[in-house]
Amino acid sequence: MELRSSIKYLKGVGEKRAAVLAKLGIFTLWDLLTFYPRTYEDWSKIYSIKDAPLNENICIRGIVGMPCREHRIRKGMTLYKTEVTDGEMLLDITFFNNPYSAKKLEQGKEYLFFGKITGKGYYRSMNSPDFVETDGSGGIRPIYPQTAGMNSRAIEKLVKSAFEYGEKPTDPIPEEIRNSYCLMNLSDALQNIHFPQSADMLSEARRRLIFEELFLLELGLLRMKTKSRQSTAVSMKKDYTDEFRSLLPFELTNAQKKAISQAAEDMLLGTPMNRLVQGDVGSGKTAVCAALIYNCARNGYQSALMAPTEVLAMQHYKTLAKFFENTDITIGLLTGSTPAAEKKRIKASLKSGETDLVIGTHALIQKDVEFDRLALAVTDEQHRFGVNQRNSLHSKGQNPHTLVMSATPIPRTLALIIYGDLDLSILDEMPKGRQKTETYLVTPEIRERAYGYVKKHLCEGRQGYIVCPLVEEGETSEMTAANALFKELSDGFFKGFRLGLLHGKMKSADKKAVMDSFSSGNIQLLVSTTVIEVGIDVPNAVIMVIENAERFGLSQLHQLRGRIGRGTEKSTCILISDADETERLNVLASTNDGFKIADEDLKLRGPGDFFGSRQHGLPEMKIANMMTDGEAIREAHTAAENLLKKNPALSGEEFALLRNEVNRLFSGGSMN
Ligand code: ADP
Ligand code: MG
């Protein structure tokens, strides 16, 4: 069978099981072969019952000494018991409500049993062991991620059958490269990742598969980077960023000044700037990009600023319009819901070069958005976009300078992988006069008191946020939940105050009206979903209550909390939660440092989730782990660099498959 064939034709599958496998993302034979075990059981080391360590998963060999007996201990609970010996000691075996397993054991026959032994003195027992006849497979056995309707053993059988009937995979890594890095061939690696001949073979198989994944990734990223490096960009004649400072209502922090001058210097060169500005929420990234946009406009070129949400795009529009109000810089706002006529007008004026700056959402990367002389492409909160989206904005100009901004702290090595040769500016200093936001964790019983505290602030002329809980599966929609809370509060505790409601499903004009009214101070209290998570900036808002805080990730809470503490006033964030896991939320109460919080998040949630493709837009890794495989990343990086040096286009028959795989991995992007 071809490896591309549908899994349903594999012996032992059929339509029904194919549907179950589809839930695991397995559609073809190849998908099954690359559905890697989650972990392994070591059935290769066999203990004697006497010497086996207690309470650990281990394997013993024994002969069944008696037929299985049934003990009904109460309604709905039947035990099946038997006894096994290895010639030295007895072991009691018990199955719970599982006649099927129990009855398979035949008296007088020898089996391998895998499970945990418990016991005292000379008594030993094992509950619900897994077992095989001794002439069956021992060795290291795979444990797969399971799904309802398919357990690990069933998947194991299918993988065996896939190896039996499937054709041999062709190796995308040419032999020469395999030899120089001492890598197993693909076919052996797949065999050993599923059914390792030994622990050593398993680790070699892993090494080989991880290498391949990272090698493909690096090849793709390096090719993008080389393309950009070889290209020439518009160089700015003069650096006007000093002039920009006089437009600001505040003095820039040293960190901001440094980031601006680093970027402005890049833009004087003939190669495209490629810079990441990383700074915690509230560190003032907007002013940095504004300085560079100003610089670009004064040099006679156009810029684009892309934000992940409409609300944020609108806010940037307002902020920059204010910065530039006494200049002749023209700005357009382009989002999904800009009226058609207005869209047409803005697009025309971008194409003619009349508009100097366009701010918007994904709408900016649509095909029909064209520029006359785009020289600077800025992406805000870039972690919300994929690599491909960033590249699409970039492709709107002749190698424009690129600036990406992010509040998500990413370890430097990882940043280098994700962003290729991106240069880094870090805003590690908050604007003067900021006070630490106090964060409290409270139980729902004292919600009223928390609200009372909010009310006190509103009466003093301050503003605040109430953040609605995340909607969980099976609950009503986000919109309904937000509406309900808004109504409850407006008619109840906050009656007489000016409340506003903001959620993602609102029409854009309504969103804008609410945001305008909130930033002008008319709305006192904004009841909102996480749409305010990124970027919203209303310095007079000094208090925030987050309902059901346990439903949010730590980094997300930190981002939300970043909406307050933006002025010189002291701010307070109240997390309401009735969950027991206070330890996690207490991290927020104890620090305002985004890096530390991200670290904790990482520890608690695991890297897979944190660096899931949603976070960085990279292709998903099946086996490599960006956080722990640092050594492998470096190796793959060097290997990719060396290969591209010799063969930049990956031309030649022996690289055909590799070339294809790289393209497939980055398909949809600007690779070719
Ligand atoms: P973020 O890095 O989260 O995008 P913003 O650019 O939204 O931060 O800035 C946060 C707030 O701080 C805004 O109200 C902005 O006007 C203000 N701000 C930025 N830089 C300074 C500064 N150097 N001094 C005082 N306030 C500043
Ligand atoms: Mg921002």
Brief overview:
This protein has 672 residues and is an alpha/beta fold. It is built from 24 helices and 23 strands.
Structural account:
There is one protein chain. Helix content is 39%, strand content 19%. With 672 residues, the chain is α/β, with parallel strands linked by helices. The chain has four domains: 45-138, Beta Barrel (OB fold (Dihydrolipoamide Acetyltransferase, E2P)), CATH 2.40.50; 173-213 and 629-672, no CATH class; 241-427, P-loop containing nucleotide triphosphate hydrolases (Rossmann fold); 437-591, 3-Layer(aba) Sandwich (Rossmann fold), CATH 3.40.50.300. It is globular. It starts with 13 loop residues before the first helix and ends in a 7-residue tail after the last helix. 43% of the residues are buried. Residues 285-286, 380, 535 line the site of magnesium ion (MG).
Number of domains: 4
Q: Bin the strand percentage.
A: 15-25%
CATH superfamily of the largest domain: P-loop containing nucleotide triphosphate hydrolases
- What is Rg? 30 Å
Average pLDDT for all residues: 88
Main sheet attributes: strand count, strand direction, barrel closure: 7 strands, parallel
Instruction: Tell me the CATH architecture of the largest domain.
Output: 3-Layer(aba) Sandwich
